[in-house]
Amino acid sequence: MKIGLVGLPGSGKTTYFRMLSGQETDQHGRRSQVAVVEVPDPRTARIFELCQPKRMVQPEMTFVDLLALHSGDSSAGEELELVKVAGDADAFAIVVQCFGDLDSRGEPLNPKGDLETVLLEMSLTDLAIVERRLARLAKKRGDLGTHEQWEEKVLSRCRAILARGDRLLGESFTTEESKLLRGFSLLTMKPLLAVLNVAEDDLAGAGAGEARQFANGKDLGRIALCAELEEEIAQLPADEQTEFLADFGLEEPGRERFIRAAYDLLDVITFFTVNENEAHAWTISAGATAPEAAGKIHSDMQAGFVRAEVVPFTALDEYGSMAACREAGVMRVEGVEYVVQDGDILQIRFTR
Ligand SMILES: Nc1nc2c(ncn2[C@@H]2O[C@H](COP(=O)(O)OP(=O)(O)O)[C@@H](O)[C@H]2O)c(=O)[nH]1
Ligand SMILES: [Mg+2]
């Protein structure tokens, strides 16, 4: 999973990026930076311990600290850079400054306004992409094939939505329409998490109520986290971290809360595979079927899917081995329609 951090200059993107990745950053932050972070699932370690393969593969999450969006004046070049670097992101986290009295331009703090600005810029970036394509189609005038005529109709509809400053996510598109739009890597097709960068003395974000309401109204996920405090805590030795967090009334490090919010936003679950080589954790959308899960591992496995043998993690944990699960009758055989459950250990049977 890949999450792009966006937001106005000075909102705290790079500070969050350091907190999430444990990575040092280019001081001026003028370039987009990428970090891949392991998100260990204790269940993978338990499967590894019981089945003793050679290695284990934990889920990963990729964070991108994107170039700042510049309110109102981002150049076409920057927009394209944003799409190039973040077009394949699964979601965006919009960082909103809720700490201090003034923003980086010296204006009074306005978290709700900043959030609106970023949403609008995303719509405008998409609008520019859609208009470019429409202009090319328009050049062909009467020579449009049926497919291009259909494309023009779909894109015109998108143009109207984006020109209103709305997002494409939440609009209903047919499967073919969605497929067409995916090809453009549009920013407003992706789920958004509003990350309220709150002050150390207002960790609950009482001062950011308007922004919170606005985020709810726009159907964004949201989380309040003090980037600077969390970064400081993340640098402490593990045992001191717990103490510090408790002092601030926090139950968990910011990184964990951030990642959980992203999982919730994307509505993903984890399934596992295990063989003599590896115990492997995979993330897929909740509601995915067994063949779709197989496709995550290899496209051949989806194409030739025959059946899946399923053992819930809790059963392996209890019986101690896959063989014991089979003997106890807790291994199930499921077909193409099976909806994978969080914690399933899958053995995919397929033909080549
Ligand atoms: N007081 C306070 N300052 C912060 C917080 N988060 C970031 N900053 C400061 O705000 C400035 C901009 O942060 P940065 O992460 O570089 O923002 P970016 O432009 O969005 O990448 C830096 O001086 C940070 O130290 C915070 O939670 N509280
Ligand atoms: Mg930065």
Describe the structure.
With 352 residues, the chain is of the alpha/beta class. It folds into two domains: 264 residues, 3-Layer(aba) Sandwich (Rossmann fold); 64 residues, Ubiquitin-like (UB roll). 43% of the residues lie in helices and 21% in strands. The protein contains 14 helices and twelve strands. The strands form three sheets. A six-stranded mixed β-sheet has the order 2-4-1-5-6-7, sandwiched between helices. The radius of gyration is 23 Å and the shape is flat. The two termini are 28 Å apart. The structure holds guanosine-5'-diphosphate (GDP) and magnesium ion. The site of magnesium ion (MG) has 3 residues, from helix 1. Magnesium ion binds next to helix 1.
Main sheet characteristics = 6 strands, mixed
Sketch the topology as an H/E string, one letter per element. Answer: EHEHEEHEHHHEHEHHHEEHHEHHEE
Radius of gyration: 23 Å
DSSP strand (E) fraction? Answer: 15-25%
Task: Report the CATH C-level class of the largest domain.
Answer: Alpha Beta
Strand order of the largest sheet: 2-4-1-5-6-7
CATH architecture of the largest domain: 3-Layer(aba) Sandwich
Uncertain residue ranges: none
